[in-house]
Write a structure and sequence with these properties.
Oligomer: single chain
Distance between the termini: 54 Å
Number of strands: 7
Order of helices and strands: EEEEEHHHHEEHHH
Shape: elongated
Number of domains: 2
Strand content: 15-25%
Strand order of the largest sheet: 1-2-3-5-4
Number of helices: 7
């Protein structure tokens, strides 16, 4: 059978039989892959922890009829244990890999792969607060998938901003003429933080206070849930350093005002 090599990050695993696992991967060149890691659950397995969630590895696989088979795995990014040591990082990482699983398919998506690997690396190094890292990842991943939000000009008519209404169903901020009746208003600090998370302006993002971060998180969660249509199960388990208030400005988790 044909063999191939690729770099991949482990999204999730499932037990198969007594000693094997089915591993779902997001790869650099082949998109999402489902493969079998034979004997990986045995103590003497040569794969060890290289095929656990959040790990990045250089893999050799051969093509199977329904599932490919992993024959070699060399670690490139041992992020799993470092992330698992911190509960907030662990819950954020779970939401990231679930999002990547939902947004990608068998077609290659180099940008999604690089974005996820970068976010997991950042979590493992504690570069930024986990919730901010997650919110930034979600906004960027959705943008790469074709759902880029607007936090400056009206997302419906393009009227130059700033605007203070946000409607997730319409793609972000909207001007007064486009805003539906009862559309929630969001304060400028929260909209500014959302823009910083989307562009990766970490100095501005980390300067935001806890209340502003909580409101921005509510908007990001609503935007993500709306566009993915089915809710992310892992989002409800994301740990916040401080109690999270109700979703921002009257927006519920399904994007309704």
């Amino acid at each position: 059978m044909p063999t191939y090599r690729d770099e991949a990050v482990v999204l999730r695993t499932h037990k198969l039989g007594e000693a094997d696992r089915i591993v779902t991967l997001l790869s650099r060149q082949h998109g999402k892959i489902r493969a079998v890691a034979k004997g990986v659950r045995r103590t003497a397995s040569r794969f060890g922890s290289r095929l656990e969630p959040f790990m990045v590895a250089d893999l050799q696989l051969y093509e199977g009829r329904t599932l490919d088979v992993i024959t070699q795995a060399e670690s490139l990014g041992a992020y799993g244990a470092l992330i698992a040591d911190d509960y907030a990082s662990y819950t954020a990482a779970n939401a990231m890999v679930e999002t990547a699983d939902r947004l990608t398919d068998a077609e290659a998506s180099l940008q999604q792969y690089l974005l996820l690997v970068g976010a997991l690396r950042s979590l493992s190094r504690r570069e930024h607060p986990p919730t901010l890292t997650l919110d930034s990842y979600l906004l960027r991943a959705l943008s790469l998938a074709g759902w880029a939000p607007s936090f400056q000009d009206c997302s419906r008519c393009g009227r130059p901003g700033p605007h203070d209404h946000i409607v997730v169903q319409l793609g972000g901020v909207v001007c007064p003429d486009c805003a539906p009746s009862g559309a929630p208003r969001v304060d400028p600090a929260t909209i500014g933080l959302l823009g910083s998370l989307l562009t990766g302006d970490w100095a501005s993002a980390e300067a935001a206070d806890e209340s502003t971060r909580s409101k921005a998180n509510g908007v990001v969660s609503a935007y993500t849930q709306w566009h993915l249509e089915r809710g992310l199960r892992s989002l409800q388990h994301v740990h916040h350093d401080t109690p999270t208030s109700a979703p921002a400005a009257g927006i519920d988790e399904k994007g309704r005002a």
